[in-house]
Amino acid sequence: MNLHATELWFSYNGRHPVLQGVEVELRSGELLFLLGANGAGKSTLLRCVAGLLPPERGQILLAGRALPTMTARERAQHIGLVPQAHSPVFTYSTRDMVLMGRSPHLKRLAGPSRRDHEIATWALQSVGLEKLADRPYTALSGGEQRLALIARGLAQGARVLLMDEPDANLDPAHQHMVLRLAAQLADRDLALAVTSHNPNNALAYSHRAGLLSCGVLVCGSPMTVLNPSALEQAYGVPFASLSGSDGRVAVLPAAELNLPGR
Amino acid sequence: MKSPVPPWILLLAAPAAAGFAALLMGRLWLSPSEVLGALLGRGDVPELSRTLVLGVRLPRVLAAGCVGAGLSAAGASFQGMFRNPLVEPRILGASSGAALGAAAALLLGWSTFAVQASAFAVGLAAVAGAWLLSRGFGTSVLVLVIAGLVVASAFDALLGILKYLADPTDALPAITYWLLGGLGAVRWGHLWPLLGATGVGAIVLSAARWRLNVLSLDELEAESLGIPVRKWRLAVVAAGTLLTAAAVAAAGVIGWIGLLVPHAARALVGPDHARLLPASLSLGAALVILLDTVARTALPAEIPLGILTGLVGIPAFAFLFVRTLHTRGGWR
């Protein structure tokens, strides 16, 4: 299922627009990384595309249908949002957290059925958390919590998954665990958009990348979009690019340190 | 782990057992067979026992059950919705409003029924005021809590004025005694509004109980799951307010129940509101029935129920609090 947004304009206070005519396309089978400086509007773009913030102008089409004409329930059956890991006040079990993904499928006043429980179990298995199902969600590690929230999106039946910084605050092994799962979900024909602060993760895992700067999004192949000069423009510090003997490329900030003793 | 007894039987058993025990006890102790006979309408039960069971004790047990179930269910739902385990059902001003309504009616010398009706109406009006006030400042639950705090403080101040104006020989003691809480004035004739309001409130919250889990998440997150957050929030606030206002109108200001019982229920069945809400209804009903029985039988004169719930509630809450911190590392 594809999602196509064109000419998106959005501002929080009516004066300084965060998004100034953004176009973005999420295609099924693709993992799209969205990068940009703090406050550039990555999370805002994600919320607009999820239908949770109405843009001032612009059009969002989900499989050809205008997103605003869909009910919240219909939207949630197709689009899942994986928030940054958080800690709920109450210590719900991991299974209960995943089960909440069934919300947009429940009958009017009913709770989850036996089938909803089965779907939650399947979702837990698809992310490899079935052994932790009965642990409190708050007792999971940061990486496991991300996986649980992704499982919730799968239980939701979403074909479009939007993830807000799933690689933040994780050690390299856990970043790999979460992003490998995202790439695997793209192989299962989901459309994924991931915001991140790590251009090297984009280079390693994404099919396409977008760089958000000054309210405008530039999209394309990760190698072309995330070139050192574009990154310098977006983040305001110089970048250098390194290539390994296997042809893989990495970028790193290359500002002069000028610290004594180094 | 599957319990051999269906859970709904356990839910009914606790308040039923407490209620049956309460029917036995009083200045005149009755035998279980006398109580059963009176309840089943058998002819061989003495007239006095029949009157005591059906006319005096049964309405009081039902009222205590409604008050306990209502305050506990409102407390459990509000704690979930406001994402704060220290919330009490009076947080939105229902209790302060009801107290003001009752005090005004007592000052005017109205009948018992009119005092209850006034308490109920002003309790609902207070929360409606808080809801309208909060709508001017966005939609977050924090704004609603602050609006509730403002309204409750305003009504508390007005209550102070009424007490200052009240005649210290008759109206002031009546107001003070009413505020301490008790079910001594319960009669069949006044019971129906309480039974009705508790029934409606409990049904609405039971329908919302699984969605309370989702409502206890971040608002944007709940909306991304397709839940119409504001509609459910209004339903939960309306139902919780109905329960609280009805309970305070019938029994006066009863503290601690709405805070304590949800914690005890969480310790028993876990944090999932689909289980927590029925457990709170059941435990709350049983606990207040027992406390009210103590209130009317322990001393020659009746102990105000509000004092008793405070005496029992504070150490019980301290115990649960410490146990929760030690064994679970979080609120369950």
How many whole angstroms does the radius of gyration of chain A measure? Answer: 19 Å
* Assembly status: heterodimer
Helix content of chain B: over 70%
User: Structural class, from helix and strand content of chain B?
Assistant: mainly alpha
Task: Jot down its keywords.
A: 262 residues, alpha/beta, 6-stranded mixed beta sheet, 4-stranded antiparallel beta sheet, 9 helices, 12 strands, 32% helix, 24% strand, globular, B: 332 residues, mainly alpha
Explain how this protein is built.
The complex is a heterodimer of chains A (262) and B (332). Chain A has helices at 42-49, 72-78, 94-99, 114-126, 142-155, 172-187, 199-205, 222-225, 228-235, and strands at residues 3-10, 19-26, 31-36, 57-62, 65-66, 79-82, 160-163, 191-195, 208-213, 216-220, 239-243, 249-253. With 262 residues, chain A is of the alpha/beta class. In chain A, strand 1 (3-10) and strand 2 form a beta hairpin. In chain A, helix 4 (114-126) packs across helix 5 and helix 5 (142-155) packs parallel to helix 6. The longest helix of chain A is centred in the C-terminal third of the chain and has 16 residues, at 172-187. By secondary structure, chain B is mostly helical.
Can you give me a brief rundown of this structure?
The complex is a heterodimer of chains A (262) and B (332). Chain A is an alpha/beta fold and 262 residues long. Chain A has nine helices and twelve strands.
Q: How are the elements arranged and paired?
A:
The complex is a heterodimer of chains A (about 260) and B (about 325).
Chain A: E1 3-10, E2 19-26, E3 31-36, H1 42-49, E4 57-62, E5 65-66, H2 72-78, E6 79-82, H3 94-99, H4 114-126, H5 142-155, E7 160-163, H6 172-187, E8 191-195, H7 199-205, E9 208-213, E10 216-220, H8 222-225, H9 228-235, E11 239-243, E12 249-253
Parallel strand pairs in A: 3-8, 3-9, 6-7, 7-8
Antiparallel strand pairs in A: 1-2, 1-4, 4-5, 9-10, 11-12
Helix pairs in contact in A: 4-5, 5-6
Chain B: H1 7-24, H2 32-40, H3 47-81, H4 94-107, H5 112-135, H6 141-165, H7 171-180, H8 188-208, H9 211-215, H10 219-224, H11 229-251, H12 257-269, H13 273-297, H14 305-327
Helix pairs in contact in B: 1-3, 1-13, 2-3, 3-8, 3-11, 3-12, 3-13, 4-5, 4-6, 4-7, 4-11, 5-6, 5-11, 8-11, 12-13, 12-14
